[in-house]
Write a structure and sequence with these properties.
It contains no helices and 11 strands. Helix content is 0%, strand content 53%. Strand 7 and strand 8 form a beta hairpin. The strands form 2 sheets. Strands 2, 4, 5, 6, 9, 10 and 11 form a 7-stranded mixed beta sheet that branches. Strands 1-3-8-7 form a 4-stranded antiparallel beta sheet, with no helix packed on it. The relative contact order is 0.32. It is globular and about 40 Å long. The chain is mostly beta strands.
């Protein structure tokens, strides 16, 4: 069973930065793609950033130019660098991994709160 463990969430002031980490229990080369999603209170879970094993990263329009997704295969970890944070970025952020045989794995989430 694949496990994904997120970390790095917390409280930050508007304009601040955070870096989220997602550590996988297996080689990230096993995944077709990995991504970050977020869910604010009372809303659905939406994709924030997406990194395929091959190809270019994709971002939601609302975070383009502010967030950057990256990976460190040696550490089996995917990161989400979040800069210029806004109150509307407040949400629980989830790590996702999709396998080549159409299985989907989720972490338990990490809370990001942007508030003064």
């Amino acid at each position: 069973q694949v496990q994904l463990v997120e970390s790095g969430g917390g409280l930050v002031q508007p304009g601040g930065s955070l870096r989220l980490s997602c550590a996988a229990s297996t080689s990230i080369f096993n995944f077709k793609a990995m991504g970050w999603y977020r869910q604010a209170p009372g809303t659905g879970r939406d994709v924030v950033a997406y990194i395929p094993s091959r190809g270019i990263m994709q971002y939601a329009d609302s975070v383009k130019g502010r967030f950057t997704i990256s990976r460190d295969s040696a550490k089996n970890t995917v990161y989400l660098q979040m800069n210029s944070l806004k109150p509307e970025d407040t949400a629980v952020y989830y790590c996702n991994a999709d396998t080549y045989d159409a299985l989907h794995y989720w972490g338990k989430g990490t809370l990001v709160t942007v508030s003064s």
